[in-house]
Amino acid sequence: MNIVSNNPYTNKEVFTIKALNLVEIEEKLAKAQKTYQSWRKTSLQERSMHLLNVAKELKTNNKEYAETMTAEMGKPISQSIAEIDKCAWVCEYYAKNAPEHLANKVIETEASKSYVRYESLGVVLAIMPWNYPFWQVFRFIAPALMAGNIGVLKHASNVMKSAENIEKVFDRAGLPKGCFQNMAIGSERVENIIKDDRIKAVTLTGSKPAGSSVASIAASVIKKSVLELGGSNALVVFSDCDIDKTVETCVQARFQNTGQSCIAGKRLLVHDNIYEEFVSAFAKAVSQLKSGDPMDLETYIGVMAREDLAKELDKQLKKSVDKGAKVILGGHRQDAYFEPTIVTEVTPEMSLFKEETFGPVIGITSFTTDQEAVDLVNQSDFGLGVSIFTTNEDRIETLIPQFEDGAVFVNDMVKSNPNLPFGGTKISGYGRELSMDGIQEFVNKKTVYIK
After folding, report:
1. Most exposed residue of 76, 182, 196, 431, measured as fewest CB within 10 angstroms of its CB?
2. CA distance 64 to 80
3. Are 62 and 137 part of one and the same domain?
4. Residue 308: inside a domain
5. pLDDT in tens, 339-356
6. Can you tell me the distance from the alpha carbon of 65 to that of 79, in angstroms, rounded to the nearest whole number?
7. Are 54 and 37 members of one domain?
8. Does 87 lie in the same domain as 205?
């Protein structure tokens, strides 16, 4: 069986790779396990050196990797280059900070000496999506390698050339063969790989159904899993916000990566007192976003990654319009291209409010009181993050504890940063990536007690 990636803008084939057979899968798993036996014994200083070489390789050839990413899933090229550079950042972060994150934690007890040490687990399987083909992988593999683990990747089928490129990054950077391997497989192979004794844990970024399936399989063989699933983040705009800055941030929060991001601001909640003024300014800003060839540096809105995804978004829009929502900008689709779209009069029972919308469409809902805003945010089944825009410090401190999400960003968009833990609540998943929390997800926290 061949795995094929097609350019969603030109409809031309980008890359074809033959799916691994059972013998080839066994060879890769054996190689990963063998590499682990030596990699786990390397010093943190040596691992740091390797990771800095990876960062250097990413920066040196960022355009090469970015162009393939854009060809495979339609991300505007300027955003693809930024994604590669962000991967270099996370490598540099862990190269510098992992020794502190993994240092023994001394705990005073009645013993002569007691502490917790952080040891590697082994080979970790990563199952990753197409929307950030490099970043989703690197925010896993950088801390995993620094902790002494080994990574194997099952990437989305439409970005398999990017997956191959990630393996190329590590080869070019001079890491030992087998530290990171791409597994060109279909979803039907995943269960047996998770159950393989050499796989010690699994991490997935993807949809709720995929997360539920992977978590169930991992649980059946008592293996650790981390799930980063979908989101329906709210952008909450209060009447005392800086309107110009808030408009700019909200446009980026919803429409970067053509709206295909789990942490995008998908529900815009605006206070009644500034509703008309804000919506007018927001619509004007969105109307000025340039759509076009994703390879053009000036393009901000490209095509969606696949036409079927654009069709699904269209269905969600039409179902909401049928219930009374009003399209004030955009609303049209052509093949995999979906116009930047703004919809008003959105209510909680509509698809645009209660479902994840993975594309350049945003629904707007008005509110009157702070408590109403909190209730609207928490009404979602998702819990990845929320952004609030206000200059009232008392309001900020009062509201932060009331949101049920994994992150609250004030006067900024929700984004992942190597310095901060990243993850959600409810059906947005469990576990954390990045920062100290992320590197400690896939370690054995070993208690040592000496008397």
Report:
1. 196
2. 10
3. yes
4. yes
5. 999 999 999 999 999 999
6. 12
7. yes
8. yes
- pLDDT tens for residues 33-56? 999 999 999 999 999 999 999 999
Q: First vs last Cα of the chain: how many Å apart?
A: 59
For residue 252, the model assigns a pLDDT of 98
Residues 6+ apart with CB under 8 A from 338: 258, 304, 310, 313, 314, 330, 332, 359, 360, 361
Q: What is the CATH number of the domain that holds 161?
A: 3.40.605.10
Report phi then psi at 269, rounded to 5: -110, 120
Q: Nearest to residue 233, comparing CAs of 208, 206, 261, 203? A: 261
Q: Which residues of 46-58 are buried (b: 16+ CB within 10 A; e: fewer)?
A: ebbebbbbbbebb
Active site residue 262: yes
Residue 305 sits in which domain range?
233-418
Residue 305 domain-assigned? yes
Does the pTM exceed 0.85?
A: yes
Catalytic residue among 57, 72, 92, 228: 228
Q: For the residues 14-21, what does the mean pLDDT come to?
A: 97
Tell me, yes or no, whether 423 lies in a domain. no
Please check whether residues 169 and 256 belong to one and the same domain: no
Same domain for 266 and 197: no
Position 423 scores a pLDDT of: 98
Quote the tokens at residue 421: 């833990």
Tell me, what CATH number does 319's domain have? 3.40.309.10
How many domains, in total, are found in the chain?
2
Query: Does residue 292 sit within a domain?
Result: yes
pLDDT score recorded for residue 397:
97
Summarize pLDDT for 361-379 with one digit per residue, the tens: 999 999 999 999 999 999 9
> Which residue type occupies 286?
V
d(CA 341, CA 329): 5
Is residue 258 domain-shared with residue 329, that is, in the same domain?
yes
Active-site position among 179, 241, 250, 262: 262
Q: Do 238 and 323 reside in the same domain of the chain?
A: yes
Q: Please tell me the distance from the alpha carbon of residue 41 to that of residue 144, in angstroms, as a whole number.
A: 14
